[in-house]
Write a structure and sequence with these properties.
The complex is a heterodimer.
Chain A lengths: L2 E8 L6 H12 L12 E5 L7 H15 L5 E8 L3
Antiparallel strand pairs in A: 1-2, 1-3
Chain B lengths: L1 E6 L6 H10 L3 E6 L10 E4 L19 H11 L4 E4 L1 H8 L6 E3 L7 E9 L14 E9 L3 E3 L2 H9 L3 E5 L11 E5 L5 E4 L19 H12 L4
Parallel strand pairs in B: 1-2, 1-3, 3-4, 4-11
Antiparallel strand pairs in B: 5-8, 6-7, 6-9, 9-10, 10-11
Classes of the chains: A alpha+beta, B alpha/beta.
Chain lengths: 83, 226
């Protein structure tokens, strides 16, 4: 069943304290060479039946109004095939 | 006057807010998040806490609750609305106020007696204060960093819509030390610190917060938000 995936990320100019905390932990765990970490959210939306253009448009609207706060976050919407 | 205090699942400070409303000389009316009804109140307080568990984003789910449909409509008509802490986050998510609140820049929860300057005493909620009054009230938040793009910040400053600014310490990384803002009309105010916890000597950091709950009467008398 295909599903719609919405990825939400803090805008580049917005401070991401969670990403900074993860970034700070990496060297302590022995992972070197990571110059930055940004943390976002991934939503997997499963629908009854196939993903039509209308459903994609609906998902876009969901992301715009609810899943992301466009004041501080960017989002992408795409269809992903699953096994 | 009747001032409604909304309780969402996860709200913490509704009882303190009701108490502050009564100390301010008004009748406190409990409002429930699931009701499409403001019970005839003259103003609304959205108190602090973790409504809907802060799931998704702070205030993101509360913003679409039935009572908020009514609050947003009433606010657009000029009803005074005060959002404290989580209430401020809800007002930003509702787009009644610009900007957003993100996790504190130092990543720790902060709880302190915070010094503030009341820079705009022309709102429905701050008219009891002298302009540029310096007050100390309780501050407690994990996601209190106010952010907005530069043009929005410039507009807020230019239009005198910064209601309160942090003094001495910026406790959460808020842009330009902003602790509270208002909308263009001055009826909607969002504030990160908690005036409702500073209304009695016994429990709070003094009583400097009382003004937020007596201003409403002053404003009503002077028809500030008519």
């Amino acid at each position: 069943m295909p599903r719609v995936v919405v990825d939400v990320m803090p805008k580049p100019e917005i401070l991401d304290p969670q990403g900074k905390a993860v970034h700070g932990a990496l060297p302590r765990l022995g992972f070197a060479g990571v110059s930055d970490v940004r943390q976002g959210k991934r939503f997997e939306l499963t629908f009854e039946g196939e993903i039509t253009a209308e459903i994609l448009a609906e998902a876009e609207k969901m992301a715009e109004t609810f899943l992301a706060n466009t004041v501080i976050e960017n989002f992408t919407v795409r269809v992903e095939e699953t096994d | 006057m009747k001032i409604g205090v909304v309780t969402f699942p996860g709200t913490l400070d509704d009882v303190d807010a009701q108490r502050a409303v009564r100390i301010g000389g008004h009748e406190a009316v409990a409002l429930w998040h699931g009701d499409h009804d403001l019970r005839g109140v003259d103003a609304v307080v959205l108190p602090g806490g973790f409504s809907y568990g802060d799931y998704l984003r702070c205030g993101a789910i509360s913003r679409f609750s039935p009572v908020m449909v009514e609050v947003i409509e009433a606010a657009h008509k000029g009803m005074p609305v005060l959002g404290i802490c989580n209430g401020f986050q809800i007002l930003c998510e509702s787009h009644l106020l610009p900007g957003a609140l993100i996790r504190n820049d130092h990543r720790k929860f902060v709880c302190r007696d915070q010094r503030l300057r009341i820079e705009n005493n022309r709102t429905a909620w701050t008219s009891a204060y002298e302009e540029n009054a310096e007050i100390t009230i309780v501050l407690k938040n994990g996601e209190g960093g106010f952010v907005a793009d530069e043009p929005t910040l410039d507009r807020l400053e230019g239009e005198g819509r910064v209601v309160a600014r942090y003094l001495e310490v910026n406790p959460n990384g808020s842009a330009r030390d902003i602790a509270g803002i208002t909308n263009e009309r001055g009826n909607v105010v969002g504030l990160m610190p908690h005036p409702e916890h500073s209304v009695e000597e016994l429990t709070g950091a003094g009583t400097d917060g009382v003004g937020f709950f007596t201003s409403f009467a002053v404003a009503a008398a002077e028809k500030v938000f008519a």
